[in-house]
Amino acid sequence: MDYDLIILGGGPAGAGAGVYAARKKLHTALLTKEFGGQSVVSEDIQNWLGSPSISGEELAKSFRKHLETYAGDIVAIKEGEEIQSVSEIDGGFQVETSGGVHTARAILVATGSHRRKLNIPGAKEYDNKGITYCASCDGPLFADKDVVVVGGGNAAFETAAQLLAYTKSVTLLNRSGEFKADPVTVEKVLKHPKMTALKHTEPIEIKGEKFVSGIVYKNTETGEQTEKSVEGIFVEIGAIPTTDFVKTLVALNNFGAVEIDPWTQQTSKAGIWAAGDCTNVRYHQNNISAGDGVRALEDIFNWLHAK
Q1: Which of 65, 159, 200, 247 is at 20 to 30 A from 237, Cα to Cα?
Q2: Do 236 and 151 contact (CB within 8 A), yes or no?
Q3: Quick one: what percent of the chain has pLDDT higher than 90?
């Protein structure tokens, strides 16, 4: 085997596990397209522990720098490699990437997920220029402003609840006639005087100049179109776990997330662990993912040394 462990992903889960692998002297390769995870595009992250305010780009640089500080000849950092497949071989696993083939006794999948995005005019142009995907990360930037939440599930209503604490108003757009969120949550959020929820409504265009200034939406029953002035649009229409390359090896849930034992981060396949946004945990945050990666590494270390 080339390595004791291969870590797939350079977000908080992967980078955190990498630092611990280095300090525990596990011969490791960290393979990632880029460091930082989903937050790399955020202009101002205010909830990363120890940094009251940091950009996604700077956070990504700090992940790499921290890992490089301890990597030495223990952790091989292979940035720019895209994961193509993971397969089981005698004594471990083989990972094929855009950069080559690597083998290891154990695998940590920390490849995160990617947000399902709007596919309408203006959505691409104003991505992270008023269109955002994380109320906890970016919500405070929209204090005293009118914002829209797109979606009707628990994530959308939880996002709305967070935003109501500091925005001027929140309008939720739900394309169907029923909300998918828990009825108790829906009832509680809709009671807020700054909250409006529209059913049978879907966005059809995002408008702006340098940043978002408005949204056009239509009633799917009547066809009536409305343009609303807003400065923030929070998209909560689901996320897609980046897990295709392990779908034949480990158990995935209906959404494609890796099913794990929350005590250990172990998957259904001995020798493979998973951490962060690619797993079936309830909450997805940078700090949570980092902790999950560390927990996985602790268990991986014990597993490797017990063999």
Answers
A1: 247
A2: yes
A3: 85
Q: Which residue from 305, 297, 304, 302 is spatially nearest to 30, judged by alpha carbons? A: 297
Which residues pair with residue 29 across a beta bridge?
6, 76
Decide yes or no: CATH 3.50.50.60 for domain 3-114+239-306: yes
- Cα separation, 186 vs 3, in Å, equals 49
Q: Which fold has domain 117-235?
A: FAD/NAD(P)-binding domain (3.50.50)
Q: Please, what is the Cα angle at 114 between 239 and 53, to 5 degrees? A: 105
Of 197, 202, 196, the closest CA to residue 222 belongs to 202
Contact assessment for residue 111 and residue 83, using Cβ atoms and an 8 Å cutoff: yes
Helices (H), 54-168: 56-71, 135-138, 154-163
Q: Is pLDDT above 90 for 238? A: no
Which pLDDT score is estimated for 38? 80
> Where are the domains positioned within the chain?
3-114+239-306, 117-235
Beginning with the edge strand found earlier in the chain, give each strand of the sheet holding 212-219 in spatial order.
201-208, 212-219, 225-229
Who contacts 3 (Cβ-Cβ below 8 Å, separation ≥6)? 27, 28, 29, 76, 102, 103, 104, 105
Tell me: the pLDDT tens digits for 49-86?
Answer: 999 988 889 999 999 999 999 999 999 999 999 999 99
Give the alpha-carbon dihedral of 4, 7, 13, 16, to 10 degrees. 50
- The DSSP result for 221-287, as a single string, is TT--EEEEE-SEEEE-S-EEES-GGGTTTS-B-TTSPBP--TTT-B-SSTTEEE-GGGB--S---HH
